[in-house]
Amino acid sequence: MADITMVRVDERLVHGQIIIKWLQAKNANKIIIVDNELCKDPIMGNFLSMTVPQNVNLEIYDIYEAVETLNASESNDKAIILLKNLYLVKFMHQKGVKIKEINIGRIPSGPGKKKIHQNVFLSDEDIDAIEYFREKAVPIIVQMVPDSLPILIYDVI
């Protein structure tokens, strides 16, 4: 399995903070996006691949392909996993993907969501996933960039 250096939930997926700050902070050479819609859009996939540095490999999978790939991989890559939703992280963990910590960047507001931090709004489904990870003793932090103070989500919900 590739060394998963970070699992990040952020609805923007690949953006400046990932490219400029997190790749370097995590010494990563691969980005894996897990998104059931984006994996079906080759134009957007090609666009995103042009945004990452040349020395970084970008792969886009649906949730099932991601689980299969991550569980079967014998790669020495250092990977950042990007997803839009906490429930997909929960699904991956339940299917055997080893997740040591979860980083939350931005989860947008929406109907029925509760604001718990700047740019982080949680649904009941998100809170269910957080409680699952609390029981499994997997830390979940809110941290926009590596040099900002990480906040343990269990302390703010």
From TrEMBL:
Keyword Transport attributed: yes
Assigned GO CC terms: cytoplasm
Domain PTS EIIB type-4: from-to ranges: 1-157
Keywords: Cytoplasm, Kinase, Phosphotransferase system, Sugar transport, Transferase, Transport
InterPro entries: PTS_IIB_sorbose-sp (IPR004720), PTS_IIB_sorbose-sp_sf (IPR036667)
Pfam families: PTSIIB_sorb (PF03830)
Main location: cytoplasm
Annotated GO MF terms: kinase activity; protein-N(PI)-phosphohistidine-sugar phosphotransferase activity
Highest taxon listed in the record's lineage: Bacteria
Subcellular location: Cytoplasm
GO biological process: phosphoenolpyruvate-dependent sugar phosphotransferase system
Membrane-crossing segments per the record: none
The keyword Calcium appears for this protein: no
Name of this protein: PTS system sorbose subfamily IIB component
UniProt source species: Tepidanaerobacter acetatoxydans (strain DSM 21804 / JCM 16047 / Re1)
